[in-house]
Amino acid sequence: MQTVQPDDLVLLVDRDRKSFIVRLEPGSQLHTHRGVLNHDDLIGTPWGTRVYTHLGHPLWLLRPSTDDLVRDLRRISQIVYPKDAGYILMKMRIAPGCRVVEAGTGSGGLTLVFAQAVSPTGRVYSYEVRPDMQQLAHRNLEQLGLTEFVEFKLRDIAGGFDERDADALFLDLPTPWDYLAQAHEALVNGGFFGCILPTTNQVSRLIGALEETNFGLIEVEELLLRPYKAVPARLRPIDRMVAHTGYLIFARALIPSEE
Amino acid sequence: MQTVQPDDLVLLVDRDRKSFIVRLEPGSQLHTHRGVLNHDDLIGTPWGTRVYTHLGHPLWLLRPSTDDLVRDLRRISQIVYPKDAGYILMKMRIAPGCRVVEAGTGSGGLTLVFAQAVSPTGRVYSYEVRPDMQQLAHRNLEQLGLTEFVEFKLRDIAGGFDERDADALFLDLPTPWDYLAQAHEALVNGGFFGCILPTTNQVSRLIGALEETNFGLIEVEELLLRPYKAVPARLRPIDRMVAHTGYLIFARALIPSEE
Amino acid sequence: MQTVQPDDLVLLVDRDRKSFIVRLEPGSQLHTHRGVLNHDDLIGTPWGTRVYTHLGHPLWLLRPSTDDLVRDLRRISQIVYPKDAGYILMKMRIAPGCRVVEAGTGSGGLTLVFAQAVSPTGRVYSYEVRPDMQQLAHRNLEQLGLTEFVEFKLRDIAGGFDERDADALFLDLPTPWDYLAQAHEALVNGGFFGCILPTTNQVSRLIGALEETNFGLIEVEELLLRPYKAVPARLRPIDRMVAHTGYLIFARALIPSEE
Amino acid sequence: MQTVQPDDLVLLVDRDRKSFIVRLEPGSQLHTHRGVLNHDDLIGTPWGTRVYTHLGHPLWLLRPSTDDLVRDLRRISQIVYPKDAGYILMKMRIAPGCRVVEAGTGSGGLTLVFAQAVSPTGRVYSYEVRPDMQQLAHRNLEQLGLTEFVEFKLRDIAGGFDERDADALFLDLPTPWDYLAQAHEALVNGGFFGCILPTTNQVSRLIGALEETNFGLIEVEELLLRPYKAVPARLRPIDRMVAHTGYLIFARALIPSEE
């Protein structure tokens, strides 16, 4: 039976589904509203068991999912939700070995998903202009042991990206139409372009600009995630749900014919 | 500028967004309703350019996305859609290096996504009872060069899985409640369980059975994908959409307390 | 220009879209968190103008919509939302002159919509077992001047309905399958049956029972209402929405063939 | 037991849910792909029973719902769906006795719903510029016996509406922003304004124009209708659904303060 080891990243979930993610360090303590847990008491405990705070409150001891990691991220900006991030992987073929460019880094939610997906041989090049953002994202990914797959760049992308022949490039910023020439230049010919935007006005403007910058096969989609109450005899959607995270825009970097 | 090479997998997309995926073999031909293309004429052509059939019809020459690959799959069964597959990766932390068990293989759509996501160091163990299904899935993954990451098993899972300590296990079959003890045995303690089911009756039955088989933190969700017409001045959802693919059920394999 | 008169029902809406509905009585006052309004100051004021509390806070003076009335209703039970109520009118042809049976009355939300729709020549027969519920519903409809179109009955419907040849019959209660014979008896041959239920388990059970009780042309549907932020340059769905109110079930009371 | 009479409007539904709506005339025949029915054979038959074509195919004999009527309408333009029409009644308080202005008439789908809802004492004023449209709508409503509640006007609304103090005004045309001053003039102070538009660009433009024309309390919403397969043991959404009919925009005609 596999047990928890020092330096492991653990997810602790209480009865109300409130959860905590921590990296275990001998001698440390986790303080929750339900009481305290000594990391030393967790080390050596089998995964999947129930542990107790000093007040006797039970918590499940588990490995976090990618969804858990993204939702738990410390953030100072809107993050890309896992439902969208997973779909982006599918639409942009982000897989082990890929070289992916991203701007802006934000709190690092998408950076995390990309870094994990391209590891161990690929690489994420992540651009950000705000130093505080970048520092937070760096700390977030360091906590997850993913920094070796990411090159963080503190830079305005108006001057262009350093990379060439990138497999995929994703823009999560308010005015993506300003950077399409730069994006096209950084992408391999035929490469995958992606973007997420909150308003319909931005979507209209972006797809107009994409058409004028040698991008093609443009797609606009949105994903709605509807959670259910998991009660066998009373199965039903929960009362309220997230109604909007963003519109996803995908396109391919094309090479215009000479004619 | 990167050019297409022999043995490359290419996506060809015509003006109406109809697409074809082929692996290039010197001397071969692709026959479409718009005319014929010689593989030899494509080899050496830059990615992202337009090529023409013998009737003069243009097609974009591109690398396929994972979404393209799944949608293009030859199938004799319902496939798991990319919107669901991408989210499954997020919820079950399926990433490079993971050992993932799956049953049934079906046409191999999810097998493809899992194999790509766990490569190069992980492995997918995929169970199926129907020989014709398994053969089709095997051929589908061979076409994509992904068989080295998959162990195909032609076997009824009622007798249990061969694996132990699997990171994640996914069931895509009509009566998952019949195999929960076997699933729990194959999973690492605390491991990720997932399932997709079309009807609410099946969902109710499965979550009832999960509760009785030491699975916990059960979640039921569904994803709706809404595509838009990507016209800058007339942005709007398309008229009709897929209304239902399946309910996603996630849970964790727990170890009951002794008390 | 039409002005507000004594005994008019008015909707007052503040800057944050918080709203109040009151019937104007000379000498009365409306107390809001933004200050006080004298009914006498409102009487004689044109509809559609801005009025001010004694603290100077502006409120729009308007006639309430049916949607406003339903949302404002004092309630001790879940109400049927206007999105569902409006669709029920369409599916059950509830229009001026119809005779409609309803159980249970609840807080009277659907009763209100039905009463308004069948007036002035039709009638609603509304059954309820809980006296407190019925009193609340009665008071709610009295406030709106709609009681003349409703016959309230404090009675368990297990013993059957008093009506025969009703045009439409709607059940808003947890175990509708217990009352289908009674419903069939009260409906005109071919009449419209409707029901709203929160869980999938209830829907399955009801449609099974309907099939066995000479109901046919069964339909199950749900309506999702998605509100947008009405900002011209930043149009987008609001962040969160109601994810579930209930499943709507419609059927027709059929007469079995003799054969 | 109520029986079908000459001049009754009947709905006939076959086993595959294909339906026909006809007004019964002694001596007439209904020709379907399943065979012929003599109106004379239907007259005197109880509602809710099964009748048979000369080829022996069964059809249920029923009164049509408003939903049935709208869906069956002969049309040369897009109609407003019943899900939207029912909600419009709720949001604009369209009820017996109301005076409602509408433009354009189109095929008369919404005219039908409004006429039925305001009868017997209210009235619909419906404007249209295309004579063929208006004729079709007139014929459609005549078939349903609703013309006495509608005043059809063949006229460009750029010159204004004839009505004043209308309770509600609905625009179903491509450039509603061109007619807002006219709409405001026709509405009672505080009156209900509504509109349906297919694209986000139109919505942005309309709400911008509404803000500049003394309309307020603007709301933008959309309704998604999701039908289910009504099978008790295999309850599930149907595979495909209508993804978009239109965005609904509601507002109130306000009187600006003097200040």
Structure description:
Helices cover 24% and strands 33% of the residues of chain A. With 259 residues, chain A is an alpha/beta fold. Chain A has two domains: 9-64, Vcp-like ATPase, Chain A, domain 2 (Roll); 68-253, Vaccinia Virus protein VP39 (Rossmann fold). In chain A, strands 9-8-7-10-11-15-12-13 form an eight-stranded mixed beta sheet, sandwiched between helices. In chain A, strands 2-1-6-5 form a four-stranded antiparallel beta sheet, covered by helices on one side. Chain A has a two-stranded antiparallel ribbon with strand order 3-4. In chain A, β8 (123-128), α5 (131-143) and β9 form a beta-alpha-beta unit. In chain A, α2 (66-72) runs antiparallel to α4 (109-118) and α3 (82-91) crosses α4 (109-118). In chain A, 51% of the residues are buried. Chains A and B meet through β6, α2, α3, α4 and β11 of A and β6, α2, α3, α4 and β11 of B. β12 (215-229) of chain A pairs antiparallel with β12 (215-229) of chain B, so a sheet runs across the interface.
Oligomer category:
homotetramer
Q: Give the overall form of chain A.
A: globular
The Cα radius of gyration of chain A reads 21 Å
Strand content of chain A: 25-35%
Q: Report helical residue fraction of chain A.
A: 10-25%
Helix and strand sequence of chain A: EEEEHEEHHEHEHEEHEHEEEE
How many strand elements of chain A? 15
| Overall tally of structural domains of chain A | 2
Task: Tell me the greatest interface.
Answer: A-B, 77 and 77 residues
Mean pLDDT of chain A: 96
CATH class of the largest domain in chain A: Alpha Beta
How are strands sequenced across the largest beta sheet of chain A?
9-8-7-10-11-15-12-13
What is the name of the CATH topology of the largest domain in chain A? Answer: Rossmann fold
